[in-house]
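Field notebook, page 228. I keep forgetting to write these up properly, so this time I am using the form the group agreed on. The chain and the ligand, zinc ion, are recorded exactly as supplied. Prediction of the bound pose follows.
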Amino acid sequence: MLMKEAREKIVAFGKRMEADGLTLGTAGNISIFDPELRLMAISPSGIPYEKTTPEDIVILDEEGNVVEGERKPSSEYLLHGAFYKTDPEARAVVHTHSMYCTILACMGEPLRSVHYAIAEAQTDEIPLVPYHTFGTPELAAAAAKALKKPGRGLILANHGMCAYGPSIESAYGLALTMEWCAKVQWHCMAAGKMNVLSGEEMQIAMEHYKTYGQKKSDGTHTQGYSGV
Ligand SMILES: [Zn+2]
């Protein structure tokens, strides 16, 4: 079985996504990219997370052809592929319709630096991708265009959000942080007052993030609220 560990992680994080309230039903999808095999493991289309098994995960090549798997892949495999093609460092993508990110998406609002915690995404603003029909090459192309490296997240207009990173743990941790920041921003907007941090302050916060948390064996530090 190809990408066994990646398959198991996608199943585990799919269950977490549901338990953490980041999704409803079968909405959203997770992928992991193997840079040596040049293959992507992605959750299947339309199977509830609690019923998904490692065998249900679909393995695709970079052109989107099924290399291994009986199931139909997530309809957003092109969207996931856009991250791996745009950023050679990308190893995992979490796409979901979490409530507060989706509210901003439906308001036509980017996720702004209302709280410094958004520094985890290595940017001072998570951009808004213009609306395109789900599952289309147009949506994938618009996401690739909006992605400003090293920023690690996107808000998809009238749709949801994406977070990616060097591991599924970091992509998932960022998805949680983005949802929390979106909740803060929405409440500020609803209350009619929002103080957005300056680009200068956010640069300082991003520098602090480099040495925040615990030092890991590779010399880098754990990042963000999830400590990964
Ligand atoms: Zn979606």
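OBSERVATIONS:
- Residues 76, 95, 97, 134, 159-160 surround zinc ion (CB under 6 Å).
- The first strand starts at residue 29 and ends at 34.
FOLLOW-UP: compare against the apo run.
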